[in-house]
Amino acid sequence: MHDIVILGGGSGGYATALRASQLALSVVLIEQDKLGGTCLHRGCIPTKALLHAAEVADTAREGESFGVHSTFNGIDMTKVNSYKDGVINRLYKGLQGLVASRAITYVEGSGRLVAPNTVEVNGERYEGRNIVLATGSYARSLPGLDIAGLVMTSDQALQLDYVPTSVIILGGGVIGVEFASVWRSFGVDVTVIEGLPTLVPAEDASVSKAMERAFRKRGINFKTGVRFQSADQDDSGVNVTLETGETLRADLLLVAVGRGPRTQGLGYEEQGIAMDRGFVLTNERLATNVPSVFAVGDIVPGLQLAHRGFQQGIFVAEEIAGLAPLTIDETGIPRVTYSEPEIASIGYTEAQAKEKFGEVESYEYNLGGNGKSQILGTAGFIKLVRQKNGPVVGVHMIGSRVGELVGEAQLVYNWEASPEDVTPLIHAHPTQNEAFGEAFLALAGKPLHAHA
Ligand SMILES: Cc1cc2nc3c(=O)[nH]c(=O)nc-3n(C[C@H](O)[C@H](O)[C@H](O)COP(=O)(O)OP(=O)(O)OC[C@H]3O[C@@H](n4cnc5c(N)ncnc54)[C@H](O)[C@@H]3O)c2cc1C
């Protein structure tokens, strides 16, 4: 009997294993594919490598405007992929080494929950005083839309060995706009189709609007508030019909309509675990309704982000060890979209804050007043939302590299700081981080480099 048996070795599962081993618990970690899961092999890391290659392409293209002779001569996807795979492989080796260096029994194979305290893999049974379900997610499609050939999800798009001439992207959420951004920088004619009224619809309305402006400027086509009807493909491309009757054609169609929980056929229902549309339901301590069975990561309803999975894994290991960790505030999880421009946010949008707190104040600091942003040639803003005379409850940023600013934003949100708490703190000049400090100065009524 082990202390913990973990099913799934992605962000949530391996974080649970690493923390549990630090706490001297005996751990079994079961993975059917590659340790590291979606994020390392098919998600966060490969997409960010492509986005970095895209940034290099833009830099080459725009060199002349900085007085640097350079031209963009095209993309060699074989080399881009070997750069991307090199990053993944280094991290993969590091992670394998980390797990191997701990007292973790690593089991390769596909596991199934066969009793509330037992997972079976390759005919062997692993019993745990506690079970942690961490089987992650898969790319969804729409009814009648088969993923095959030129109709693909992010899984196949990350393996493409050529740059298409044109693409249609179904879905203007995080994954959709990140691919749109990469392909546009690679010179592709991109059209994004989003059923909701705006791109990145989960973001604050002002950020969505700014994103649309930026995409328009970059020549990325998009159609919002319009739903997909059907698609058919031939040898050379895909025809997409929208509900309005309009048809579009491109070399390929990327389906980026969200991710479903990977929980089917794994024995969860049979063991009486409460589920909702395939997601595993937990309480705020990540316990399912079945005693000693926990769940972490994308199978738990909420934000599907790697760092949420890491934190949930740490939480569950500490909970099992009896450390009574603090529960995780879902609203306090930072969210970054790594497109050009980047989006970073935390807490409530202005609309959500109004609904929750009644009276709120907000302020948008324009990056036009920020020296480093001017040096980089980026536009955008940092928007703060606070409860009237109270703490800041939302931070919303758009502009190149603003993802790197989300660290301070999450401290502000999670420490319930008011502008008066932040304004005495000094932000280095000239950094983009300084814009963050300026936004707080303005909200506290003492703007420095701000016109309003
Ligand atoms: C294109 C893309 C880009 C993304 N970018 C980001 C980003 O920039 N930042 C971010 O925070 N998040 C990002 N994500 C989301 C992130 O990848 C997920 O939130 C994260 O991987 C979830 O971790 P997890 O442990 O729940 O699941 P997963 O990483 O999916 O891991 C689950 C693991 O369980 C294994 N498994 C499943 N069933 C079994 C079984 N029966 N037996 C044994 N093993 C099994 C799987 O093989 C898999 O390795 C991105 C996702 C995608 C698709």
Q: Which labels suit this protein?
A:
452 residues; alpha/beta; seven-stranded mixed beta sheet; five-stranded parallel beta sheet; 13 helices; 24 strands; binds flavin-adenine dinucleotide
Description:
- With 452 residues, this protein is α/β, with parallel strands linked by helices.
- It is 32% helix and 25% strand.
- The protein contains 13 helices and 24 strands.
- It has helices at 11-22, 37-42, 44-62, 77-100, 154-157, 174-185, 205-218, 306-320, 350-357, 371-376, 406-414, 419-422, 433-443; strands spanning 2-7, 27-31, 104-108, 111-115, 118-121, 124-133, 137-139, 151-152, 166-170, 189-194, 221-224, 228-233, 238-242, 247-250, 252-255, 259-261, 275-276, 279-280, 293-295, 335-337, 342-347, 360-366, 381-387, 392-399.
- Strands 1, 2, 3, 4, 5, 6 and 19 form a seven-stranded mixed β-sheet that branches.
- Flavin-adenine dinucleotide binds next to helix 1, strand 2, helix 2, helix 3 and helix 8.
Overall average residue pLDDT: 97
From the spread of the alpha carbons, the general shape counts as: globular
Number of helices: 13
The proportion of residues in beta strands is 25-35%
Radius of gyration: 23 Å
Largest sheet: 7 strands, mixed
Structural class: alpha/beta
Low-confidence stretches: none
Determine the fraction of residues in helical runs and give it as a percent range: 25-40%
Amino- and carboxy-terminal Cα gap: 65 Å
Number of strands: 24
What small molecules does the structure contain? flavin-adenine dinucleotide
